[in-house]
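Notes from hallway chat w/ T.B., transcribed later so I don't forget. T.B. wanted the structure written out for a chain they're using in a teaching module, and asked if we could keep both sequence and structure tokens in one place. Agreed to drop them here.
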Amino acid sequence: MHSGTDNSTGNGAGSGGAGSDIEGWAEELARAGWSSKAEHVAAILRRRIAEGKHRPDRRLPEDTISKGLKVSRNTLREAFRLLAHEGAVEHRHGQGVFVRRLTVADVVDLYRLRRVVQPAVIRDLKGRTVDLGQVRAAVEASEAAGLAAAGPESDWSALGTANIRFHLALTELADSRRLDDLMNRVLAELRLVFYVATDVREFHMTYSTRNRRILELIEAGALAKAANEMTAYLRDAERDLVQRYSTAL
């Protein structure tokens, strides 16, 4: 499914490819001060994939990206290798690097992982004092995006982004950089599914309302109920998304 703001072309040019905002990437890279430039380049590309700026089956132009980021091709290729290891991109012989189109088995596996991690994060909040501000903000943003995108031709990417932010914010309550990195990778992969699956507007709206229920249970201290609700939520979401994705493939 393509949003109304996607003007990308098959070769990765335009706003959905490398993009006219590429000049800002180099500034971000310079400010970051990471020990590994390849890791940070991978993080930038991973985020852009999650935001829908690079769609499944779109080529990532090596020359444009390396020049825009002011990094060597070797650095960029190392970033591509990191993303390929995660399953976000793939090398096609003689063609270059492309954003990967996931299989139905990939979707099932991603939800299997989420059912292990996300309910456990909620249960582990017992006895801890945490700031739910970011979780609450994500719920409110998804509700606002749903109201703003009521028409059949509306761009629902903002709602999808807010829903993803809800899950990231919940994971951040664990205060674990490794879990944050894991969930960022998982949700970046799932975002690729949303751009192919059918009827994702209805999907996002359904689970946006359930986000509010989980937040309310956590606020009330009913962590076991919230964790069980998350498990049921993820089982239902897997079933719904697999059906929509299978139809679109």
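Follow-up for T.B.: The first strand starts at residue 89 and ends at 92. Might be a good example for the class.
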